[in-house]
Specification:
The complex is a heterodimer of chains A (about 220) and B (about 500). In chain A, the strands form four sheets. Chain A has a six-stranded antiparallel sheet with strand order 9-8-7-2-1-11, with helices on one face. Chain A has about 220 residues and is α+β, with helices and mostly antiparallel strands. With about 500 residues, chain B is α/β, with parallel strands linked by helices. In chain B, the strands form seven sheets. Chain B has a ten-stranded parallel sheet, with no helix packed on it. The radius of gyration of chain B is 34 Å and the shape is elongated. Classes of the chains: A alpha+beta (about 220), B alpha/beta (about 500). At the A-B interface, helix 1, helix 2, strand 4, strand 5 and strand 9 of A face helix 1, strand 10 and strand 34 of B.
Chain lengths: ~220, ~500
């Protein structure tokens, strides 16, 4: 019985075997850690890419909703700032707030609320690259302005509003009036954070755009 | 003597197997955790995108509903069957019941009540792709009392578009900073309750009612439908030859804008291109003209012309406009003429105008009904109109005529100083025949009337200032005539259709 136990212990690993197994195990463990780390980075990169993309869509949808109903607007600061004049449709003085009945003019004017006193929404990029956010500042006819950040995280955003008939120009322009553009091309892009895609050309692949028809164009 | 017992062997073997199993379980747990995290994140993101697309598609459904309501408003004036399948509220039974016909629906609307339409389940709009496969709408049309202008009804069309959302009743947060209130958020989904009904109520529920729904995206659009009348332009020449207009000025003013135009009267000093005041006189020439010899404060449209921009036209030029000019026909109430019109006719009330049919007119004066400050007279003339026309303040006269029209400008005496109060309709002559509308010389100052006579040759002598809107076949003058379009006439005259005057989405 005693000699049998000794034989069991003799079945253990030698120092060389231990060292070899530690080296192999170390490589395996290191590989796994590296793989997990890389996986996490890729996942974070993809998630960040998705977040920025969904932010683009949210901003575009926000602008689309406001621009469709806008009475007029203008684009300034090299096409990076968009100002919209909106119909004062909701009467916030009521509880709950209710839609207003429009005042009609025989010549075809339709006014919600007080003529010449309409709310505005301003879209612009805040901050410097790569820590930029897109914001919307809404100014009602009464009360103070509300500034809302539309993007979930910071990125190197580019935002521009262009005249569809002259997309090569970043000159200021107004729209909504007679002889002015009846639609606006809105473009948003961001710089992906993947290392290999840090080239400026990578931005082109992230561009989303929409040509929005101004429903209230004269 | 055994070297090892089976028990010892087993113990050793079990220890080895246990380690392997433990490592395997740990690896599986780690991989499962990673997989679950990825799935949870991807699922959440997919849910967000899928529902965001559904939200965008709900607007398509709402606009389809607006189109449906718009079509019925137009059919109402074009004579096609309107409001079929729409419902009105029956106060006797407290139910929404189907209207019997267009008259029934129009009565409801005229009374300030609404008619509604729900797209039947079997007619839902089908869609493919990521967002939704099921779209439908609910439409409400009404016309508040203030929506009746110059006898023409404007409509308010409210359409709610719905997009059924597949998947679970959940969506990723649309508030990136997590600090937004309901009103500030963009996409509002009805995952369990209809949020519009909760806020405003609807035709069947009071505000605050909790109406349970399957997950859906809901968007609401309100459109104001404005009647289109023949007088939405300053001058329309239906078949001109050569350059049809050779006058010093065509401009506009708004008789309802007493801020810029004291007493609602025309003046040229208020004209300002920067503020768009007085520069809205559109001219349509239904011919391929190459030049336009007038100073036009407004826009020019031609059918196949080649008019280039210049200092004489302040607005836009569009040489590719094909406009359908509705023919002018005898009014439905016309009867066989009893003889020439008397020198004086008494108008009916505005609510119940008078009607008369005559063989000719040689000077006519309208008298207000007894005890009234306003009134309206409609006459149909099978022959010529000559002599003069006198319309007292408060009265409106509409004349449909089949013969020629001839009188001096000074003999058109419209005391209202408003063209809407004297409306002249030249009935289209039979094929191969011509008709003339002649205004003789004189020194009349301003002459107020509207003319819808697309089959008439309009000729002018002298230098009157015409204030109104004019639809003719050809137009000729001596070069000293001015034309001042009253923008308020866009709502006057017989409605021939509808156009969108305002589009607004309810962001709540």
């Amino acid at each position: 019985m005693k000699s049998g136990k000794v034989r069991v212990f003799q079945k253990g690993m030698t120092l060389v075997e231990m060292m070899l197994s530690l080296v192999v195990g170390g490589f395996l463990l290191g590989g796994m850690i590296l793989a997990f780390s890389t996986f996490q980075q890729v996942f974070a990169g993809v998630d960040d890419y998705y977040r920025a993309t969904s932010d683009e869509m949210r901003v575009l949808d926000f602008i689309g909703q406001d621009m469709r109903r806008a009475i007029s607007g203008n684009v300034t600061n090299n096409s990076n700032t968009l100002t919209l004049t909106l119909p004062d449709y909701i009467d916030d003085s009521q509880n709950p707030p209710m839609p207003r009945t429009a005042t009609l003019g025989a010549s075809g004017t339709v006014t919600y609320g007080t003529s010449g006193l309409q709310p505005t929404a301003v879209y612009t990029i805040a901050g410097t690259s790569p820590n930029q956010l897109i914001t919307r500042t809404y100014t009602p006819t009464t009360g103070s302005s509300t500034s809302t950040t539309l993007t979930a995280g910071a990125a190197s955003y580019q935002f521009s509003c262009l005249n569809p008939s002259n997309t090569g120009s970043t000159a200021n322009f107004s729209f909504g009036g007679k002889g002015q553009p009846s639609s606006v091309l809105v473009r948003i892009s961001f710089q992906p954070k993947f290392n290999r895609l840090n080239a400026a050309s990578a931005r082109a692949g992230t561009t989303v755009s929409s040509t929005i028809l101004l429903r209230n164009h004269l | 003597m055994k070297v090892t017992s089976p028990q010892q062997k087993g113990a050793l073997g079990n220890n080895c197997s246990g380690n392997t199993l433990l490592v395997a379980v740990l690896l599986l747990a780690v991989l499962s955790f990673i997989g679950a995290t990825v799935l949870q994140t991807v699922s959440s993101r997919y849910d967000y995108s899928q529902k965001a697309i559904g939200w965008a598609e709900a607007l398509n459904a709402a606009e389809a509903g607006v189109d449906f309501g718009f079509a019925h408003c137009g059919w109402n004036v074009s004579g096609q069957p309107a409001w079929t399948g729409w419902k009105k509220y029956d106060s006797a039974t407290s139910n929404w019941i189907t209207v019997t016909d267009a008259t029934d629906a129009n009565s409801e609307i005229a009374a300030g009540r609404r008619v509604i339409y729900d797209l039947p389940a079997g007619s839902h709009l089908l869609s493919g792709g990521e967002g939704t496969t099921n779209l439908w709408y609910h439409v409400e049309v009404d016309s508040p009392a203030s929506y009746l202008i110059s006898g023409n009804r404007w409509y308010r069309i409210r359409a709610t578009g719905y997009a059924g959302l597949t998947g679970m009743a959940r969506s990723n947060n649309d508030s990136p900073d997590g600090a937004r209130t309901h009103n500030e958020m963009l996409r509002k989904y009805d995952l369990r309750l209809d949020h519009f009904i909760k806020r405003y109520g609807d035709y069947a529920h009071a505000a605050g009612a909790s109406v349970t729904v399957s997950p859906q995206a809901t968007r609401r659009v309100e459109v104001t439908a404005q009647p289109q009348t023949p007088f939405s332009r300053a001058i329309v020449a239906s078949a001109p030859s050569g350059n049809p207009v050779s006058v010093p000025i065509v401009d506009s003013y708004d008789s309802t804008d007493t801020i810029h135009y004291a007493g609602g009267l025309y003046n040229s000093s208020s004209r300002n291109a920067n503020t768009q005041v007085g520069v809205n006189a559109s001219v349509y020439i239904n011919a391929p003209i190459s030049s336009f010899n007038a100073t036009l404060y407004g826009s020019l449209e031609t059918n196949g012309g080649s008019v280039a921009g210049g200092n004489n036209i302040s607005g836009t030029i569009d040489n590719n406009v094909t406009l359908t000019i509705p023919p002018v026909t005898a009014p439905t109430w016309a009867v066989t003429a009893s003889g020439p019109a008397p020198a004086t006719i008494t108008a009916g009330t505005t609510a119940s105008p008078s009607h008369g049919s005559y063989s000719s007119v040689n000077g006519i004066t309208v008298a207000l009904p007894s005890g009234q400050t306003t009134g309206e007279a409609n006459i149909y003339v099978t022959g010529d109109v000559t002599g003069g026309i006198t319309v007292p303040a408060g009265a409106t006269l509409k004349i449909w005529f089949e013969g020629n029209f001839s009188m001096k400008a000074r003999d058109i005496d419209n005391h209202n100083n408003n063209a809407a109060n004297l409306q002249l309709y030249g009935i289209d002559p039979p094929a191969g025949q011509t008709r003339s509308f002649s205004i003789g010389s004189g020194n009349p100052g301003y002459t107020y009337f509207t003319l819808d006579a697309p089959g008439y040759d309009f000729s002018v002598n002298g230098n009157p200032d015409f204030v109104g809107a004019y639809i003719v076949k050809t137009l000729s003058g001596n070069g000293n005539t001015s034309w001042h379009y009253d923008e308020a006439l866009a709502s006057a005259g017989m409605a021939t259709g509808y156009k969108r005057a305002m589009w607004v989405e309810d962001p709540r």
